[in-house]
Write a structure and sequence with these properties.
CATH class: Alpha Beta
Shape: globular
Radius of gyration: 18 Å
Strand order of the largest sheet: 3-2-1-4-5-6-7
Largest sheet: 7 strands, parallel
Distance between the termini: 44 Å
CATH superfamily: NAD(P)-binding Rossmann-like Domain
Bound molecules: NADP nicotinamide-adenine-dinucleotide phosphate
Length: about 260
């Protein structure tokens, strides 16, 4: 696929996976529309990638009105949206009994409704165009339940279910839908205080490089892959969950105890 002059909107572009995709796509001469809350971080990335076709829009994905006005100004300017990559999100690692209700709701608002908000605006545009790619970044934790992640898991399971449904609904419209499920990736994700002493904080070298996830996303777009699971062990787990569910849960518990997960 030739990405030149494709209009690509990325949420969560100021760091980690979203930033890595922005860098990869900038090299392919894409027209980039970058969204995240921090104007300073977005400005820094715009300078870093040196792509003259990059616009930044500081915005919280929960703010539906602002998302709507950004999409309007993008379509007014370029007349189309080719690719939407929903990457904005965050995680909290805490046993259910310690989780605050407000945190659980915020996880759902940002991780799930943030995606609903952008899709609400962009899907009708892409249906009218008869083409486009919607990429939703879920997680392996959006396919497999892990201890300590109930709020985050629920938000990512919601993303996976939403995306799977959307893929079926849009199947004959020319709009392609992609569900990306990364495993632990070396980004600022684990900076959240709840991850203090987490295995991934202690062993960051075992995490996937965000560039690998970015390339997997580009590959999914180019080859029209619906679901991409990233991480060898987790991908085996995912298959095992359906084929040998009890064995899978036993292995999961052994690993959890070894790694000291909650
Ligand atoms: N890292 C992992 O192990 C991992 C694994 C599986 C899935 N994921 C998913 O991958 C996605 C990207 O995470 P990451 O690992 O790249 O983490 P990250 O480095 O912390 O990046 C998160 C991005 O989301 C933006 N963001 C957070 N809340 C937002 C909001 N309310 N509105 C707009 N932007 C918001 C952040 O920018 P601002 O702070 O500027 O808003 C940042 O650009 C997330 O959906 C995450 O759940 C991560």
């Amino acid at each position: 696929m030739d990405f030149t002059d494709k209009v690509c909107l990325i949420t969560g572009a100021s760091s980690g996976i979203g930033k890595a995709i922005a860098i990869e796509l900038a090299e392919r001469d894409v027209i980039l529309i970058l969204i995240s809350r921090s104007k300073e971080k977005l400005e820094k990335i715009r300078k870093e990638i040196k792509n003259k076709n990059t616009s930044i829009y500081p915005c919280d994905v929960v703010d539906n009105e602002k998302i709507s006005s950004i999409i309007s100004s993008v379509t007014n300017k370029f007349g189309k949206i080719d690719i939407l990559i929903n990457c904005a999100g965050f995680g909290i690692y805490e046993p259910f009994i310690k989780q605050k209700d407000d945190d659980v709701r915020r996880l759902m608002e940002v991780n799930y409704f943030g995606i609903v908000n952008t899709c609400r605006q962009v899907v009708p545009i892409m249906i009218r165009q008869g083409y486009g790619h919607i990429v939703n970044v879920s997680s392996m934790v959006g396919r497999i339940g892990f201890a300590g992640y109930s709020g985050y898991c629920a938000s990512k399971f919601a993303v996976s279910g939403f995306t799977e449904s959307l893929n079926e609904e849009l199947y004959d419209t020319g709009v392609k839908v992609h569900l990306i499920c990364p495993s632990g990736t070396n980004t600022n994700f684990f900076d959240h205080p709840s991850f203090k002493n987490h295995y991934h904080r202690r062993f960051p070298k075992k995490l996937t490089d965000p560039k690998t996830v970015a390339n997997a996303i580009i590959d999914a777009i180019e080859k029209n892959k619906f679901e991409v699971n990233i991480g060898f062990l987790e991908s085996v787990f995912l298959k095992g969950k359906y084929v040998f569910p009890n064995l899978f849960r036993w292995i999961q518990r052994v690993i959890r105890r070894r790694r000291g997960y909650k």
